[in-house]
Amino acid sequence: MTGPLLRAKHFYLPLVLAAVTLSADFDYTVTNTNFTVSQPSALAGVDETYLYNYDRLRLRGDYRQEGFFATFIGDGVNYLGEDYVTSYSFDYVREQKSDTAFKTETRFYDYERGMAYAKLYRLYGGYSDASNRVALGLQNITMGVGRIWTPTNLFNPRNTYALEPDETFGVAALSYTRYLDTTSQLTVVASQKADRSFKYAAIYKTFLEFADVGFDLVRSDETFMAGYELEANLADTGIEIRSEGAYITNNSVNVYHQDTNTTQKEDVAFFQGLVGADYGFENGVTVVFEALYSSKKFAYNEILPNIDSEILPTLVYSQFYMGTTLSYAFNLFLDGSLVYIESFNELNSRFVSPALTYTLNDYNTFTLGAMLQNGPSGSEFGMFGNSYYLRYSLSF
Predict the structure, then answer these.
(1) pLDDT tens digits for 120-162?
(2) In this structure, are residues 299 and 315 in contact, taking their beta carbons and an 8 Å threshold?
(3) Are the C-beta atoms of 124 and 87 separated by less than 8 Å?
(4) pTM of the model as a whole
(5) Percentage of the chain surpassing pLDDT 90?
(6) Which of 170, 229, 256, 301 is the most exposed, fewest CB within 10 Å of its CB?
(7) Per-residue b/e over 255-274, b at no fewer than 16 CB within 10 Å?
(8) Average pLDDT estimate for 85-92
(9) Which DSSP state fits 317?
(10) More confident residue, 319 or 3
(11) If 0-12 CB within 10 Å is exposed, 13-18 middle and 19+ buried, where does residue 182 land?
(12) Per DSSP, what are the bridge partners of residue 233?
């Protein structure tokens, strides 16, 4: 999302001297990502649009010495736009926090027309060799094979409907992977949540002649998830097919009862799964298709009170979705992409996100994009308006 990154050869002199002494490699990148956004209210039925500027200055450092590694990613974030930072929509942004026992953000500093804060995005270190990989710290836990949805990922799920889908909160965890042989591996994870309780996961992946297969387990005080992953090539067609599914139970979901107009915490259990396929054409067009099914759906006034739930990404409005993404490189400098998602419900609705990216050089990229939501009043995507943005990324 931030454009090409330039690998620098030098850092501050003391760190360079230390790295040379230890025969280690240290790389750093600095990226500034700036959005000018026209965005509707995040509250359903509120007819307001905000024009604001969002800027993120990101510093990343990667250290390696033989099998040891460490990564730091820190952000300075600024929102400029008085109407937006004083709105309920921005209150929703401020309420989103990492599910960790320590704070990863400073407080928001209010100035005349905007707000700014600093954020620790990733901070982890560990060791890896041909048979093992161990990492400790604020990191990303990868689960699932979906490109649009990932029902098995209850740690760092991407949000396709967000301005930056892959920008996810880090997980404070200890993860260990054992490479059992050339085709099999076992990963175990222990993470600590904001309430200081723990969430655990086990992920086993192997190759079974025709496909890469995985089995996933996640357990916490509130949630149990058992899932699978499947990825394979369809004969010699060049088509990659995949499937992913999860059986999820949770004992503290806020469920809305229409007859009494009340919300109560209850146990829920449901299955959610997808099938998908990818294909790259010779002319440079790449197509991704996915269909998502959920045995249970949730109303808007049920999802909103569950903003802090660890299964929030799986609380969906519809039982069935179909989505596709298209990408095409027009030339060396110009790329286009399109996301289309149809929500099948009592009232069908759709989400469409086109984007055009121009790469000026190794340091500068520009993206013009939109997030269009269309459908009848009261439908999933008919409740909200359209967003438009211009993104500029500078890397050095």
Answers:
(1) 999 999 999 999 999 999 999 999 999 999 999 999 999 999 9
(2) no
(3) no
(4) 0.89
(5) 80
(6) 301
(7) bbeeeeeebeeeebebebbb
(8) 92
(9) S
(10) 319
(11) exposed
(12) 240
Distances (CA, A) of 199 to 57, 174, 195, 303: 31, 11, 11, 22
CA count, 13 A, side-chain hemisphere, 367: 25
Least confident of 47-61, 115-129, 226-240, 249-263: 249-263
How far is the C-alpha of 376 from the C-alpha of 349, rounded, in Å? 7
CB atoms within 10 A of CB 328: 15
Q: How many CA atoms lie within 13 A of 168 on its CB side?
A: 20
The full DSSP string for 177-203 is EEE-SSS-EEEEEEEE-TTS-EEEEEE
Strand boundaries in the chain, DSSP class E? 25-40, 49-65, 68-80, 109-110, 114-128, 132-139, 171-179, 185-192, 198-207, 212-219, 223-233, 240-257, 262-280, 286-294, 320-329, 334-344, 349-359, 364-374, 387-395
Cα-Cα-Cα-Cα torsion 101, 102, 105, 108, nearest 10 degrees, comes to 90
Give per-residue pLDDT as tens, 240-283. Answer: 999 999 999 999 888 777 777 777 888 999 999 999 999 999 88
Buried residues in 297-307 as b, exposed as e (16+ CB within 10 A): bbeeebbbebe
pLDDT, mean of residues 52-77: 97
Q: What is the pLDDT, as a whole number, of residue 23?
A: 52
pLDDT at 10: 37
- Distance of alpha carbon 209 from alpha carbon 172, whole angstroms: 36
Give, rounded to a whole angstrom, the gap between the first and last alpha carbons of the chain. Answer: 16
